[in-house]
């Protein structure tokens, strides 16, 4: 299994600012994903982070608000831009190695974001 | 992906088996059943997955009915640390996406 870490683990930010969350995997993974978990809710997929190309966003999420980078097979970042209190959520990244079919997705511990 | 239905919450006594049901009556032949759990303030943890045969690993057993319209996750000897939200997810083979429903909140009581 892949071990995934995220930085920061939590942050408190002011509205109008931006925060970049980092996701590091201990081994190469073919697929990386970013999820949002709003308070008391389940996880919602934001986008698939594609290495070397633009991320693929789910309905309701746009690149201007959630720009994503994935420079290599073990690292990705998610930026939450121009934050408002509605962006207060836990943001999680996940990865799957592609070594088995069907593959298994492993999750990071999450970044708890509070926007004031 | 097929929709899943799970009870909102369940209780279980410590040391007893926890049986968590999931209904996926519209499942297709190429869709797998996955189970994850999320312990409070942590990321989801993979538990087990299956297609049509029963599966067992060090964490749990997965029983899938013959018609594949429902399944049961069994934690054979529940501990307090098994208190979590358990998600049953149906996933198309070849699709990497996981669609999380509301899950079942399992509380293991001493």
Q: Give, in order, the helices and strands of chain B.
A: EEEEEEEEE
What is the count of helical runs of chain A?
0
Calculate the terminal CA-CA distance of chain A, rounded to whole Å.
37 Å
Residue share in β-strands of chain B: over 45%
Structural write-up:
Chain A has no helices and 11 strands. Chain A has strands spanning 4-7, 10-13, 19-25, 31-37, 43-49, 56-57, 68-72, 75-80, 89-96, 105-107, 111-115. In chain A, the strands form 2 sheets. In chain A, strands 2, 4, 5, 6, 9, 10 and 11 form a 7-stranded mixed β-sheet that branches. Chain A has a 4-stranded antiparallel β-sheet with strand order 1-3-8-7, with no helix packed on it. In chain A, β5 (43-49) and β6 (56-57) form a beta hairpin. The radius of gyration of chain A is 13 Å and the shape is globular. The relative contact order of chain A is 0.34. Chain B is globular. At the A-B interface, β5, β9 and β10 of A face β4 of B.
